[in-house]
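To illustrate the input format used throughout this study, we show a single complete record. The first block contains the structure-token representation of the backbone; no residue identities are included at this stage. The design step must infer an amino acid for every position from geometry alone.
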């Protein structure tokens, strides 16, 4: 083979390589093999300890990664406190009085700085912790691609704009996920996260007291028991912080019960129920039924979609930094 032929082969091979890489972006599995081989062990152990102390923490850590990735990408911007020129995303509407787990991440970061100083990014900690939290509750365990770096800023406005509201219509949810490079299958699979954790009255009040979401063809209201339970937790006004489980049936387990719930009209949030009630594109409900009838299929899809979400706008190479304290940029 002449030189040109050879370089063509190499070129084709490389393009193919880039094609496969793009599934996982520029992140790699063994990023810390040299600099911090113990990282996954430390994170997993701390997630276990945190969830033993507070069972809800598994859900909270999963959500933290989501709220990080949807705002400027998975760059730990969500962890920054108000300081210097930074307006923290923690104060934004979807996060304030709601997002939790920051102390757990601080604790993990502290141990990692002892074990391997300046090596592991806060954004990678979030990605590993989310995976371990799901696995700990009986969910799938996917490989976490690593090598993210941490942002030098936060995006308060972005947090209000890009994290979907609990009363979003299906069209809004689809558009919102598409904006992040995620498709309808990702939307449905990732919504399955609501198989664990809790929501505040403030987040589901509209769902309990707005009629049109649950009228059947005869105009009769379904799920009156479900509504009665919820209205006893969440009055028409007041008690904004009162909690209800997102998955009424198996609140502590990561399983596919979420999908069975929403098929029965028993999703806690409006954004959960619209996956079944507003399926104008035809394919959404199909995913819901497929996940409801096949947990393994849901688990596979969930892992795939989490890897996709974990790749959103990551900072790599010499972009950003490795923060030494997740709450502040390095001075
Ligand atoms: C599809 C659009 C989504 C909407 C509208 C939404 C909305 C919400 C809301 C309103 C809450 C309750 C917050 C509160 O009242 O304090 C919540 C909780 C939660 N969300 Fe979502 N979410 C969505 C997608 C996701 C995704 C993609 C994930 C993870 C990948 C996720 C994971 C969670 C978890 C685990 C909780 C429980 C957190 C805890 O108990 O601390 N959600 N979500
Ligand atoms: C969603 O809730 C917000 C605030 O509670 C409200 O301003 C908005 O109109 C609601 N949107 C829909 C589509 O109901």
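Output of the design step:
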């Amino acid at each position: 083979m002449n030189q040109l032929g050879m370089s063509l082969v190499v070129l084709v091979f490389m393009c193919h390589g880039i094609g496969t890489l793009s599934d996982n972006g520029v992140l790699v599995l063994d990023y810390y093999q040299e600099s911090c081989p113990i990282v996954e062990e430390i994170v997993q152990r701390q997630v276990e300890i945190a969830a033993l102390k507070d069972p809800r923490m598994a859900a909270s850590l999963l959500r933290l990664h989501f709220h990080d990735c949807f705002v400027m990408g998975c760059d730990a911007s969500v962890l920054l406190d108000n300081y210097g020129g930074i307006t923290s995303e923690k104060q934004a509407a979807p996060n304030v009085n709601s997002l939790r787990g920051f102390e757990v991440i601080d604790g993990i970061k502290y141990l990692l700085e002892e074990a391997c100083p300046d090596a592991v990014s806060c954004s990678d900690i979030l990605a590993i912790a989310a995976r371990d939290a799901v696995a700990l509750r009986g969910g799938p365990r996917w490989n976490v691609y690593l090598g993210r770096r941490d942002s030098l800023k936060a995006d308060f406005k972005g947090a209000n704009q890009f994290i979907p509201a609990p009363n979003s219509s299906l069209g809004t949810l689809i558009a919102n996920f598409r904006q992040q490079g995620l498709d309808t299958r990702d939307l449905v699979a990732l919504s399955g996260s609501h198989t664990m954790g809790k929501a505040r009255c403030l987040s589901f009040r509209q769902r309990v007291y707005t009629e049109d979401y649950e009228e059947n063809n005869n105009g009769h209201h379904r799920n009156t028991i479900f509504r009665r339970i919820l209205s006893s937790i969440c009055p028409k006004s007041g008690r904004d912080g009162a909690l209800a489980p997102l998955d009424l049936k198996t609140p502590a387990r990561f399983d596919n019960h979420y999908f069975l719930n929403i098929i029965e009209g028993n999703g806690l949030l409006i954004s959960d129920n619209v996956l079944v009630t507003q399926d104008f594109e035809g394919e959404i409900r199909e995913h819901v039924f497929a996940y409801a009838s096949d947990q393994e299929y849901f688990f596979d899809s969930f892992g795939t979609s989490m890897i996709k979400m974990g790749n959103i706008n990551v900072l790599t190479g010499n972009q950003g930094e490795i923060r030494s304290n997740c709450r502040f940029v390095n001075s």
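Structural context for interpreting the output: Residues 56, 59-60, 62-63, 66, 98, 100, 164-166, 168, 173, 190-191, 193-194, 196-200, 203, 246, 269, 271 surround protoporphyrin IX containing FE (ligand 1) (CB under 6 Å). The beta strands are 198-200, 243-245.
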